[in-house]
Amino acid sequence: MIVFHLQNSLVRGRAEFLTSATCAGLTQPAEFWRDDGIVRSTASVLHLDLDAFFAAVEQRDKPSLRGKPVVVGGVGGRGVVATASYEARAFGVRSAMSTAEARRRCPHAAYLSGRFTAYRKASRQVMALLYKLSPQVEQLSIDEAYVDLGAADVDVTDLVALRALGERLRADVVRETGGLTASVGMGSSKFLAKVASELAKPDGLVLVEPGTEVDIIAPLPVRAVPGVGPVTYEKLTRLGVQTVADLRQLTERELVREIGAAWGPTLRELAFARDEREVSTQREPKSVSVEHTFEHDVRERAQLVAVIDRDAAVVAERVQKARLFARTVTIKVRLADFTTLSRSRTLAGATDRAEAFARAGRELLSGLAISQGVRLLGIGVANFAEVGQEELFETDVFTDTAVEVAEVPAGSGVQEAARMWRPGVDVEHATYGRGWVWGSGLGRVTVRFETADSGPGPVKTFADSDPELALVSDEDLGNGY
Ligand code: TTP
Ligand code: MG
User: Fold this and answer.
1) Rounded to whole angstroms, what are the CA distances from 109 to 71, 99, 116?
2) Choosing a second label site near 129 at 20 to 30 A (CA), which of 105, 188, 463, 464?
3) Low-confidence residues of the chain: pLDDT under 50
4) What would the pLDDT profile of 109-158 be if each residue is shown by its tens digit?
5) Long-range CB contacts for residues 412-418, cutoff 8 Å, separation at least 24
6) Is 140 helix (H, G, I), strand (E, B) or coil?
7) What per-residue confidence (pLDDT) applies to 390?
8) Which residues surround ligand 2, an ion (CB under 5 A)?
9) 295, 292, 272, 69: which is closest to 189 by C-alpha?
C-alpha cells in the first residue's frame, strides 16, 4: 500500500492556471464573478514582482556593478543562468540559458554564484510590506505575490487612491530593501494584475481600469497569458493564433480539441479577461512523503534500495508539481518488532531531483541495521525553498555528491578553495575590511573591497590561504542583507 502525505492542501502547478475558471453563460467581458457571487468590478487585485531580483541584490551590495551587466547562476561548466541584470539582457542573456551560452553573448558581464540568505532577507522584507497592506497575500515565488486589496484600508472604487497606494508600495520597497525596485500591476483579477505588472516592467506601475480589460489584452501576444508555455504556444501558432484577439476567434470546441479539456476552456475564459480565482492565502506544503508497508517483512537491502529509488521519484514529481525545491530528506523505517526509526539529512542546496533524494535516502538507509526485517519504509522531503540552489552551487571541480550532501567527505584543498571562494560571496580582510570575491584560482583570491554603502572600491589579490582573509557568514551582515 502506498500512502501520500501532502501536508496542507495547496499544491501549485508549474502552469499558472490549474483550475478551470468557468463563467458559463456570461458574455459581458468586463464583469467578474466570485465564487460567492459578488461582482468584482474594481481593480482590487495587486501583483508585485521585483525587477531582475537576484542581480538587483548583487548590484545593491556591489556598487562597482551598478549599471553593468551582471549574471547570477551556476558559474561552473554545467551552470545555468538564474537571472541577469537588464544590462546583460540587452546582450540576449536570459534565465535558464546555459552559463556557457551567456558567456558567449556577454563575455564582459560579472558572473556571480548566488547569495541566498541575502535574497531571502530581501524577499521577507518585501512580503512584510505586502502583509501591511492586507492579510490576503498569496506569495507565488521568492519575488512575486498577489494582494487582495478588497481587505485593505483603501476605497477600491477610487482609482486615484489605488494608484497612490501602488506607488507608495513601490517607494516603500526601495526604502526597506535599500534600493531594490518592484513592478506593480493592478486590475480586477489575478490575470489582469499579473499582465499589468509585466507591462509595467521594469520599475513601473500599471493599473488596468475596470471596463478596459478586454481591449487592453487584445493586442498582447498569446505568450503573455500566464500558463501558455512552449507546447501550447506551438499548437496555437499552428492554428494561426498570434494575439489574444486571435485566440477569441477559436471556439471552445476547437480549443478543447487542440489543447485539451482542462486548459482549453480556461484559456478561452482568459482571452475574454474572465478570471474569478481568489487570492489564496493557503500555505505551501510543509513536507511531501511516500511510505510503503510490505506484505512480508523485507530483509534484502537491494529490495529496500529499489523501493527508495522508486518512491524518491514519486516524491520528486510531487515536489516539482508544487514548484518547490527541498533541502531535507528523511527516511522512516519500521522494523519487524515495530520499532520505528527515522533519519534525516540536510542537503547543501535545495533540489527537486529524484536522484538527489534517492541518493540521500540510500545513504541514510545504509546506516541502519535491518537484519530483523523491515515492515514499512518511507521517504520524505521537507524544508522547502522556491528556487533550486543546486546548480548555483555547482563549480567545475565539484562532484554531484559533494554538492548535494551537507556531510561532505573531506575533499582536496583545491575543491575546498573553489567551494569557499565562490565568485560574489562576502569576505572580510583584517586590514582592508569588507569586500566580495571577484575571482579565484591557482591558489589566489581576488577581492573587491566595497559594500552597499561605500563607493566602488579597489581590487586586491591574496593567497587563498591568507589568514587575514575570511568569509563573512550571512548572519554577521548588517542592514541590507
Ligand atoms: P523572475 O521574477 O522570473 O525574474 P527576475 O526578477 O530576475 O526578473 P524580472 O524583472 O523579469 O522579474 O524570478 C525571480 C528570481 O528567481 C530571479 O531573480 C532568479 C530566480 N530564478 C531562478 O533561479 N531560475 C529561473 O529560471 C528563474 C526564471 C528565476
Ligand atoms: Mg522578478
Assistant:
1) 7, 11, 20
2) 188
3) 1-39, 391-412, 476, 478-481
4) 999 998 988 998 999 999 999 999 999 999 888 899 999 999 888 999 99
5) 417/443, 417/464
6) strand
7) 53
8) 49-50, 53, 143
9) 272
Q: DSSP string covering 236-253, please?
A: HHHTT--BHHHHHTS-HH
Look at residue 417 in the predicted model and tell me its pLDDT.
Answer: 66
Residue 376 CA to residue 336 CA, distance in Å, equals 9
416 is catalytic: no
Instruction: State whether the beta carbon of 58 lies less than 6 angstroms from ligand 1.
Output: no
Report residue 251 as a C-alpha cell: 471556439
AA letter at 106: C
Q: Quick check: CB of 54 below 6 Å from ligand 1?
A: yes
Is the CB of residue 146 less than 8 Å from the CB of residue 137? yes
Answer whether 386 contacts ligand 1 (Cβ < 6 A).
no
Half-sphere exposure of 326 (CA within 13 A, CB side): 33
Cβ–Cβ < 8 Å for 377, 292: yes
So what's the pLDDT on residue 406? 28
Cell, residue 389: 540552489
Amino acid, single-letter form, for residue 28: Q
| Ligand 1 centre distance from Cα of residue 81 (Å) | 10
| Ligand 2 centroid distance, CA of 182 (Å) | 8
Ligand 1 contacts CB of residue 307 (under 6 A): no
* Grid cell in block for residue 55: 542581480
**pLDDT in the model for residue 190:** 94
Closest CA to 220 of 199, 204, 251: 199
The CA dihedral of 412, 415, 419, 422, to the nearest 10 degrees, is 140
Q: Could you tell me the distance, in angstroms and rounded to a whole number, from the CA of residue 83 to the centre of ligand 1?
A: 5
Ligand 2 centroid to Cα of residue 19, in Å, is 24
What pTM was computed for the model?
0.72
- Cell numbers of 330, please? 528523511
